[in-house]
Amino acid sequence: MKRVNYVLLGVSLGFWCVVGTGCGIEQLKDSNRRLKEANDRLVSENSRLEEENAGLQKRLVDLERAPPSVATLESPNVPTREATKPALDDELLIGPDVEITKTSQGIRFTIPDRVFFALGQASLTKRGATTLDRIASVIHQKYPGKTIRVDGHTDDTPIRKVMNKYPTNWELSTARACTVVRHLVEKGVNPQRIYPAGFSYYRPVSNSRTAGARGQNRRVEITVLDESV
């Protein structure tokens, strides 16, 4: 009797071992399947990233080979800000007060009026004179023989306190342009190749009525003209 029980016990243990081993195999197969799927996803993602990287590298090469800027047609009434930065070394030489851009007309130096003039005035500040000295140096070094146009721009605030001197913004914008021209000539710019222009408030860079927008519109632009202009 005991021997039969031992046999039954052995058969039972053998059965559960087979069942247990089968379950273990199925679990291993399932784990292997999940790992393979995860690996396939990683391979696919890696391929996608490699393609994106190749595209970015090609774009970088194209940008490095492209011309430094592409001039666009300027509106006759409103100046555009399409220009790119053509001369980083000029900016380092002149300083942060001046924005240097390349337009369809030539190289433009844009200076906020606060750098050059007190509000409603056309007398050059010490800071403005220093900035103009640096601009004159760049003109001598890089643009000898070029024609220079100096544009004065105001905001649309009516003239009040200095009406006896500047009846309108036309007179103020022109007077400021003339002040800049005179200083550049004193620093050696050829007087036969430089001239002023006053535009009052009719060529704004912003049509907003905020104080910040008016500050942007009050500016002086010195343009080194292309030969074709």
Could you name the key traits of this structure?
5 strands, about 50% helix, 2 domains, 60s Ribosomal Protein L30, Chain: A, elongated, alpha+beta, about 230 residues
Describe the protein's architecture and organization.
The chain is built from 6 helices and 5 strands, in the order ααββααβαβαβ. The chain has 2 domains: 66 residues; 138 residues, 2-Layer Sandwich (60s Ribosomal Protein L30, Chain: A), CATH 3.30.1330.60. The chain has a 5-stranded mixed β-sheet with strand order 1-2-5-3-4. It is of the alpha+beta class and 229 residues long.
SSE blueprint and pairings:
Blueprint: H1 2-65, H2 88-94, E1 99-102, E2 106-112, H3 113-116, H4 126-142, E3 148-153, H5 169-186, E4 194-198, H6 211-217, E5 219-225
Which residues sit in consecutive blocks of at least 5 with pLDDT less than 50?
A: 67-82
Order of helices and strands: HHEEHHEHEHE
Which CATH-level-2 architecture of the largest domain? 2-Layer Sandwich
CATH T-level topology of the largest domain: 60s Ribosomal Protein L30, Chain: A
**First-to-last CA distance:** 119 Å
Tell me the name of the CATH homologous superfamily of the largest domain: OmpA-like domain
Strand order of the largest sheet: 1-2-5-3-4
**What is the typical, i.e. mean, pLDDT?**
78
**CATH class division of the largest domain:** Alpha Beta
Strand content: 5-15%
Radius of gyration: 37 Å
* Global geometry: elongated
Query: How many beta-strand runs?
Result: 5
What share of residues is helical? 40-55%
Number of domains: 2
How does the helix and strand content classify structurally? Answer: alpha+beta
**Helix segment tally:** 6
The major β-sheet equals: 5 strands, mixed
